[in-house]
Amino acid sequence: MTQTALILVDMQNSFLHPDGENFYPAAPEVVAPCLELLEAAVASGAIIVHVCDRHREGFADFEQPRLPVHCVTGGFNAAFFEGFGPANRPNEIQITKRRYSAFFATDLALFLFEQGIERVVIGGVKTNVCVRATATDAFGNGFEVNVVREAVNSNRPHLSEASLEDVERYIGKVVDLDTAKGLLA
């Protein structure tokens, strides 16, 4: 049986809470599907990776010329959205990133290899930025990639769709929610 991990990308107040600095109207649509994935992973004992984007207050950050200061560590926006983040459930970890990909300059690949993981199921925000970068690096590290269509979106729907097409063509699979829950079983 292929060992599978769930990777939930940036399920934080910044994107999902109406008062978040990066909130967009479609963002809350990923909450229920991501919670279903989380429940499936908990039920099966699959590894759960909660990825959070966090930056240091008052320090230069390479992303800043492209993006405004965001998700400052310790602030409301950097906190996990209700229902997400480590909650003392078995088999869950947190990965803090400062770039788009959950793999870049973190120990995520090493950790997953150590656990015998071969396949990842990915949900979160935003499809065309952090989800896609994470999927690309998962593929580059040798993992079978599955991005869950209902569990990802963006404030740029056309870029979200283009990213999903690229994932399907070059990186892995775009799967529906039921298929993803089956992969986590």
UniProtKB/TrEMBL annotation:
CDD domains: cysteine_hydrolases (cd00431). GO terms for molecular function: hydrolase activity. Residues 4-177 form the Isochorismatase-like domain. The keyword Hydrolase applies. InterPro entries: Isochorismatase-like_dom (IPR000868), Isochorismatase-like_hydrls (IPR050272), Isochorismatase-like_sf (IPR036380). Coiled coil: none annotated. Keywords: Hydrolase. This is Cysteine hydrolase. It comes from Pseudooceanicola lipolyticus. The lineage of its organism: Bacteria, Pseudomonadati, Pseudomonadota, Alphaproteobacteria, Rhodobacterales.
